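Quick one: structure tokens for this chain, please?
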Amino acid sequence: MRTLGLILILAGAALACNAPTSPPVTALPPGSLAATDPPMSTQPPVPTAAPPQQEPQPTPLSIAPLAPARLMERVNALAAIDTRHVNSVGARTAADQIAEGFASAGYTPERQTFPAVVNEQYTDQENVIARLPGQSDEIVVVGAHYDSRTVDPFDAAGRAPGAGDNASGAAALLEIARVLAGTTPRHTIVFVAFAGEEVGMLGSRYFVSQTDPAAIRAMFALDSIGGVAAPQDASRVFSPPPAGSESRWLAHRVALAAGPQPLGGLVAPTIDRPGRDSGDGPFGE
């Protein structure tokens, strides 16, 4: 399953900080000896090497198992809508489905409404958001757009089921939210289903404009994960240069997390496919 590598790295990045603390030190009166102290000796002390100190390891989070059948149900339900173009009623239907998916996983979905004008038509668009509170107010954003279109970006009536682009990403977003529900991650995880990506990344731009950029630790964009550009046992991960950036480090962590699984990982040294943007662009602007 192509979402497995990402789910694993998210679980790893969201480790709860359960490191044990050292016991308090009890002060002794001046000149006294502890019960375990050896008697005084006139022989010079023999230096001994201190035992190596092991850093306490955080306890991994326990997450629910993946449900591939549920993933396909979500993809099929979104793709059954004739079009999810921003100027169609299908966009609102899709937003309702996603809000229901978050609610069924135990979240209280938020609807972030913003105005949009596409092809001289005014509409109210909605980002659908679910939050998993963590031990820190800093956030990790996991996002996927849910709108679709034909080859004509202004065609609001033509059939555009968009199973691959991007019902697959939206379904994965809901499944990741479900399996992580009930955990307490290190950083707060914000799951966002973006509106209007196909006509200029409208939803992600608005979300970024309403969020303190200093609070965002990382952003994962799920786009066309059910496509045919990569083999069935592989997943492409995009990360812009330079090679030593935090983004590249995180991308390699995703690939490494997929290593023991039946899933290959390839890190492409660019923010996205040529001429494409998955909605993560505004996060780097």
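Confidence is low (pLDDT under 50) at residues 13-41.
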